[in-house]
Structure formats: C-alpha cells, structure tokens
Amino acid sequence: MTERVLVLCATSKTGRNVSRALLEAGFEVYGTTRSTKPLPFGTAIKADYTNSDDLDQAFKECKPQFVFGNPTLCEELGETIIDTIVRAKVEHLVWCSIGWARNAPEKVTHFHALEKVATMVKNSGIASYSIIEPAAYFENIDDPGILSSWDELNF
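and the corresponding structure tokens:
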C-alpha cells in the first residue's frame, strides 16, 4: 500500500517542492489549495484554512497518514489546522518552521508567528511529529521581495 501524504499550502514554493519530492519518492500526494486548479505535483484538494469544517472535509477526502505543514501558514490559522490534524488522527506531522525564529528581532513578526505555531504543535497532543527549521532558502537570496527584509535580520 502506498503511503498517503497531505501537503498543506501545496502551491507555495515549499509546498510545490515537497510535493514533487514526495511523488518522486513513491508517496501518494494530495495538496491543499484555495482554488480548484490542478496541481503540478499531486492531487488538489480545495480547502479554506479559516474553516474547520472545510479542513475536516479535506482530511476525510484524502485520509492522509502523514501531513506536511509549511511556513506559509500563519499563527492565526495554526490553531485551526493543528486541531484538525489532531481530530484526523494523522500518524505523523512534519511541520516546517524557520531556524532561529525565536532569536529574530521583534520587528520580524512573521518569524515569531512561526515560532508560536511550532509551540502549538509541541503542546497539541499530536502523538508523532517532527519540526524542521531550515535557516533560509538559497533561491530566495536574489528575490527582491525577500532581500528588502534581510536588513531587518541584521545580516
């Protein structure tokens, strides 16, 4: 039996790359998206992250054994999504946060939000989880939108 993975925010840069890698590794991949357009890697499942009933339906539709959550999801949505994962009794959650988020300057609020969501995962009662914390994505180094925020990180 092929193992089934649900990738949250599958249309984000991280979500697309994780979905592709999982497919290449032989997993059955489903990915949440806000639209009904097909995904380049995996089967699309439309989901509104602000609506717990909608999320419950997405999980029932694909019955994932594993879930990959990535930094596109903010603190406000974290609790709803984590509660859904708990209800779905997923075997294992891989949550992607960001390295050194807890040490970022206060004005880099997105990093602190990611740290809060990682803490929610730790306190959620999810039986099995991993939290990965990449330091940065090399391909973002020359992205003008990302470069403008590097100064805030005191590099």
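(Above: one complete record from the training split.) The radius of gyration is 16 Å.
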